[in-house]
Amino acid sequence: MPDNKAKTLKPTSDAVEILHRRLYEGKPARLKNLEEARANEEIARKIQELRSAAALTQTQLAKLIGTTASVICRLEDVDYEGHSLAMLRRIAGALNQRVEIRFVPIRRSA
Amino acid sequence: MPDNKAKTLKPTSDAVEILHRRLYEGKPARLKNLEEARANEEIARKIQELRSAAALTQTQLAKLIGTTASVICRLEDVDYEGHSLAMLRRIAGALNQRVEIRFVPIRRSA
DNA sequence: CAGTTTATTCGCAATATTGCGAAAACGCAA
DNA sequence: TTGCGTTTTCGCAATATTGCGAATAAACTG
User: Which nucleotide, over all strands, has the C1' atom closest to the CA of A80?
Assistant: First the structure.
């Protein structure tokens, strides 16, 4: 489950800089749409959680919904931003769940 | 939801139930998709409801999220099956809402 | 009724998501 | 270390969703 998309970084021995890179480098989307990014993370984690709870490997779950392990892996990547309702429903269906969608008001604090 | 007999349906004014009867009564082959179809209906109605509550025309909402009225109309069509998380979030964002997604266990029965 | 606004339908191009294999990386145990 | 199963990454084709205008229908006003 990759937490990091950064690639081809030049070498460094500064631990602080390494952490900084891990958190912020190459992730403008996270800074701009923090809320959405966090929601995607939550979805990814939830999928992983459900699969683990069902004691299934990525390959096993993949077969259940008619796809491959690499697809499941992609869904469980917290940086993946392409989650679709269709796929969530397929996952849910295979794990005896249903996808509940609600619109909840946002309190735009003063 | 009351159980349904093959004959002597009692009267109803609920449009959803009428549609349900017309499309799915006595057709177990389609029951598999019923849940998803109803979920899509719910989404469509919710979007329409939110837009109305905000006192916006389809054109106005469309401009808010950077698209056209025909797209909004499509989203509000209860038979539309192409709902995406991305679009729901755009709608929600324009109407000061957020999209909450939950996986809830379902009791699988006949 | 004629005007005006809003809503709906249709077709196709543009964009986004999925399918899928292959290779590499990882974790673990003998 | 090796072997083995699992996970991750990458690239591109296939499919699905969106963008958008134009035409039509429907609803509303005067």
Answer: C17
